[in-house]
Amino acid sequence: MKKKQSKKKIQIKKKKNYSDKPAFANLEKTSDTLTTPKRSSSGIPKYVADRMARRIFFTAGIPTLLGMSVFVVSYIIVTRNIAEIPPSSTIAISALFFLLGLAGLSFGILSASWDKEPGSFFGIENIPMNIQRAKEAFKPATQNFEDKS
Fold first, then answer.
1. How many other C-beta atoms can be found within 10 angstroms of the C-beta atom of residue 70?
2. What is the Cα–Cα distance from 55 to 101, expressed in whole angstroms?
3. Kindly report the CA angle at 48 between 46 and 51, in degrees rounded to 5?
4. Eight-class DSSP state of 40
5. Ranges assigned E (strand) in the chain
6. Helix, strand, coil % (nearest 5) of the chain?
7. What is the maximum alpha-carbon separation in the chain?
8. CA-CA distance, 93 to 17, in Å (whole number)?
9. How far is CA 94 from CA 100, 105, 113, in A?
10. Helix crossing, 87-110 with 127-148: angle to 10°?
């Protein structure tokens, strides 16, 4: 007497072997479409972006870390009965550090020099020039919007 074959074995036998040739035949063909030359980007140069990142790390990163550490320090002080700190003052102090970090973020971006050689330590002299650059970057978009209306 013959054993019945399971459905899996039957399905395996019925599977067809498809070759990959027709599916991927056109993959390696190069297209004859015209490629437009890359135009120069008006974005931020890498050396300026690196300078901004360093400034942001110090002017925004440190106050933000301090804002988070206020909760930890407050918890330790309260749980060890060193002092009684109201929760509202913990929140106010951490909010102050977070606002300082937000201001530091703006300062880090606006105070970075766009010259090849780095500017001064604080870069305060670059702020008006960088604000002007930011305004000019948004000007074409607003001019197009005003012309259409």
1. 20
2. 12
3. 110
4. P
5. none
6. 65, 0, 35
7. 97
8. 69
9. 10, 16, 31
10. 80
* Exposed/middle/buried for residue 47 (C-beta within 10 Å: 0-12, 13-18, 19+): middle
CB 120 within 8 A of CB 110: no
Q: What angle do CA 88, 93, 94 make, to 5 degrees?
A: 100
Confidence band, pLDDT 50/70/90 cuts, at residue 28: low
Residue 126 DSSP one-character state: G
Give the C-alpha separation, 55 to 106, whole Å: 10
Render pLDDT for 107-146 as a digit per residue (tens, 0 to 9).
998 988 888 887 788 888 888 988 898 888 777 666 666 6
Domain ranges of the chain: 46-148
> CB count, 10 Å around CB of 10?
10
131: which 2 tokens? Answer: 């604000």
